[in-house]
Amino acid sequence: MTIQFRNQNTISKSVSVQGVGYWSGLEASVEFRPAAPDTGIIFVRADISGQPRIAVQPENCVDIPRRTCIQSGSACVEMIEHLMAALAGLQIDNCEIWVDRAEVPAFDGSCIEVVEKLQSVDLVSQPISKPTFVIEEEIRLEADGCWIAAYPHQTRSNNLTLTYQLDYEAAVIGQQEIELVVTPDAFKKELASARTFLLEVEAEWLRSQGLGRNVSFSDLLVFGPEGLIGNTLRYSDECVRHKALDAVGDLAVAGFDIAGHVVAHKSGHRVNGLFVKKLVDAFDASQGKRLSA
Ligand SMILES: [Zn+2]
User: Which of 48, 107, 230, 281 has its CA 20 to 30 A from that of 214?
Assistant: First the structure.
């Protein structure tokens, strides 16, 4: 059986969302616009003269703690991972994202508002297939006490199966694991509503650094020693679901679909980003092999 590759997709017309950035506390507006096949995902800083464009690709990713940021020249966009997750989860491959701030809105800490907004317009199939990396041998990256690996599927399938293993020293979060086949329906139902979380001590430290001034307990999940503070869980294992959402967004930076099983053990944006670079190198090498074979 040969693997069936899917066509690329864009959206039928532009949609906009507004909200406040976690780190900056500033209001920002985001407009998703349709884009031609093979465009990929491109951010446009509408608030900077010349409206610089920043393509979402590994070379443009910069290492900032706790979030995924992209930069080209002096223009950057921060905290793109939840928007990337929403687009990747819905298989929207080509899109221009016009933003009027350096940091995009955090919404409720999840990407469900973005998913619903993107689904308020039609998905448009484009007559070019999406590049897909069929994993044929293990690719693994280990760093910072965590690891992430891609394994071949046992049966030929073009799906991405994702397993995320969370292991927090803090007993209020503890060990959680989720495994799912990442389809648009499963993404929306199982991951899109899962919110960002952190420990109370981390929240206090961030506040002391002047960050997150406009963020309250209702805007994300904050866990104290006794449990969740001032909020209610949407899933009993909401934390691991959010980590899986983050991983979907981080993996999408590769620019191709992954046909295989990705297992992530405690990895965050930094390690996911290093893994994506390794995947891209392996994909390029396999393309070369195929071309010369
Ligand atoms: Zn996140």
Answer: 48
